[in-house]
C-alpha cells in the first residue's frame, strides 16, 4: 500500500510538472524604445504647399529619385485650403530637400474627376513609377459632388505625369500600400468617398466607402497598366469634417501573411482583411474588426514595425498606439504633447520610423 501510494504521488508530481510548461518571454513593445521626435526637414516647397500627408521611402535610384530618400505629398496649398496641394517633396536622410514634382496640370488625354489634390495615398513601384492619390476639393475646400471623384496619378522617375488611373472602384483615394515584383503590382487603396452617399445642397456629407485592390502589369518600357480591380472591403463609414476634410479609412498596412490591415478614423478601429492578395469577395469593416476603442483616437497613418506589430498614429491626441497582429493594444506613446491634428502619414524605414508632421509641416524622425 505504501509503495502504491508513493507511485501515485510520483505520477501526480510528474503530471503537475508537465502541465505547466515554461511560457516563452514576450517580445518588448516597439514603442517602449521610443523617446520623442526630431525634425529631419521642412516639407514646404517654394510654392508654399503645406500639410504633408503621404510618405514613401524610395527603394532604388533612377532619374530624380535617390535610394533611401523619402517622398512626401502635400495636401493643402499655401492658403491652407484642403484638397488643393500639388507637390511631392523629396527629402534626403541628411535633411536636404527638393521638389520632385509639382502637378499643377495633367497632360493632354489624362483626366482626374474633380482635379488635383494630393492625399496620403503614395507609393513607388519598380521602375521608379510613383503613384499618388488625388482627392480634389472645390470652392475653398468643399468635397466634390462627383461619383467617382479623384484618381491615382502615375509619374515617372523624373517627376513627369505619365498617366492617371480611374475606374468606378476608385472614389476619393485616401491612402494606399503596395506589394510588387518586377512584372506586376497589387496596389491597395482605401477610398474616402462613395457608397450610399448623402448630400447637403449637392455636397457629400456621409456614406460607406470601400477598400480596393488594383492589379497592375509592369514593364520597363511603358507606364503601369491596370489589369483588374476587386473591392475587398466594404461598409467603412465616412463623414465630412471641417477640420480634417473627411473622416474615413486611412492607414493601410500589408502583413507578411497577406492580411491587409485598415484603420478607420471615424470609428476608432483597425480591421483585418485576410487573403488580401488573392481574394475576390469583400468583407465588411465590422466583420474584420481586430481592435477598437481603447487608445485609438481618430487613427490615421499606420505601419508595421520590425517586431511585426502595427503602429498607428492618432489624429486627435498626438499619440502612437502599438497593436499586435492578434489585436491587443500593448503600448501607447505620446509623440507630440497636445498634438491633435499633427500626426498623419507614418512609414517604417531602415533608419526607423518617419512621420509627416502637419503641425510644423515637417518630416520627423522617431527617436529610439
Account of the protein in words:
The protein is mostly beta strands. It has one domain (29-366): 6 Propeller (Neuraminidase), CATH 2.120.10.30. Helix content is 5%, strand content 48%. It is built from one helix and 27 strands. It has one helix at 2-18; strands spanning 37-42, 50-57, 70-76, 87-91, 97-102, 118-125, 129-134, 151-155, 161-165, 173-180, 184-191, 198-200, 203-219, 222-241, 245-247, 249-254, 260-264, 269-273, 283-284, 289-292, 299-304, 310-314, 319-323, 329-334, 343-349, 352-357, 362-366. The strands form six sheets. Strands 10, 11, 12, 13, 14, 15 and 19 form a seven-stranded mixed sheet that branches. The longest helix is centred in the first third of the chain and has 17 residues, at 2-18. The chain is globular.
Describe the structure concisely for a colleague.
The protein has 368 residues and is mainly β. The chain has one helix at 2-18; strands at residues 37-42, 50-57, 70-76, 87-91, 97-102, 118-125, 129-134, 151-155, 161-165, 173-180, 184-191, 198-200, 203-219, 222-241, 245-247, 249-254, 260-264, 269-273, 283-284, 289-292, 299-304, 310-314, 319-323, 329-334, 343-349, 352-357, 362-366. The longest helix is centred in the first third of the chain and has 17 residues, at 2-18.
Amino acid at each position: 500500500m505504501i509503495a502504491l501510494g508513493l507511485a501515485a504521488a510520483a505520477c501526480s508530481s510528474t503530471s503537475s510538472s508537465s502541465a505547466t510548461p515554461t511560457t516563452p518571454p514576450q517580445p518588448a513593445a516597439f514603442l517602449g524604445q521610443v523617446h520623442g521626435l526630431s525634425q529631419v526637414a521642412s516639407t514646404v516647397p517654394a510654392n508654399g504647399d503645406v500639410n504633408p500627408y503621404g510618405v514613401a521611402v524610395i527603394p532604388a535610384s533612377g532619374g530624380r529619385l535617390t535610394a533611401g530618400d523619402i517622398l512626401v505629398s502635400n495636401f493643402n496649398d499655401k492658403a491652407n485650403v484642403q484638397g488643393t496641394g500639388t507637390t511631392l517633396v523629396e527629402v534626403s536622410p541628411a535633411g536636404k530637400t527638393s521638389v520632385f514634382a509639382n502637378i499643377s496640370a495633367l497632360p493632354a488625354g489624362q483626366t482626374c474627376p474633380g482635379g488635383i489634390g494630393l492625399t496620403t495615398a503614395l507609393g513607388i513601384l519598380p521602375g521608379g513609377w510613383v503613384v499618388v492619390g488625388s482627392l480634389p476639393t472645390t470652392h475653398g475646400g468643399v468635397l466634390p459632388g462627383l461619383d467617382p471623384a479623384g484618381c491615382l496619378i502615375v509619374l515617372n522617375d523624373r517627376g513627369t505625369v505619365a498617366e492617371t488611373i480611374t475606374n468606378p472602384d476608385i472614389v476619393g483615394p485616401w491612402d494606399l500600400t503596395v506589394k510588387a515584383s518586377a512584372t506586376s503590382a497589387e496596389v491597395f487603396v482605401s477610398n474616402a468617398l462613395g457608397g450610399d452617399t448623402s448630400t447637403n445642397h449637392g455636397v457629400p456629407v456621409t456614406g460607406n466607402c470601400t477598400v480596393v485592390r488594383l492589379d497592375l502589369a509592369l514593364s520597363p518600357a511603358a507606364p503601369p497598366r491596370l489589369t483588374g480591380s476587386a473591392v475587398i472591403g466594404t461598409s467603412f463609414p465616412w463623414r465630412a469634417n471641417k477640420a480634417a476634410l473627411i473622416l474615413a479609412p486611412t492607414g493601410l498596412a500589408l502583413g507578411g501573411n497577406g492580411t491587409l490591415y485598415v484603420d478607420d478614423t471615424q470609428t476608432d478601429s483597425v480591421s483585418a482583411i485576410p487573403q488580401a492578395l488573392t481574394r475576390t469577395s469583400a468583407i465588411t469593416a465590422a466583420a474584420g474588426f481586430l481592435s477598437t476603442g481603447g487608445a485609438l483616437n481618430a487613427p490615421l497613418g499606420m505601419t508595421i514595425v520590425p517586431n511585426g506589430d502595427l503602429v498607428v498614429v492618432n489624429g486627435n491626441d498626438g499619440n502612437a498606439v502599438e497593436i499586435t497582429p492578434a489585436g491587443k493594444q500593448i503600448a501607447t506613446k505620446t509623440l507630440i504633447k497636445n498634438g491633435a491634428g499633427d500626426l498623419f502619414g507614418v512609414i517604417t524605414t531602415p533608419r526607423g520610423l518617419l512621420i509627416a508632421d502637419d503641425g510644423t509641416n515637417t518630416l520627423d524622425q522617431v527617436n529610439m
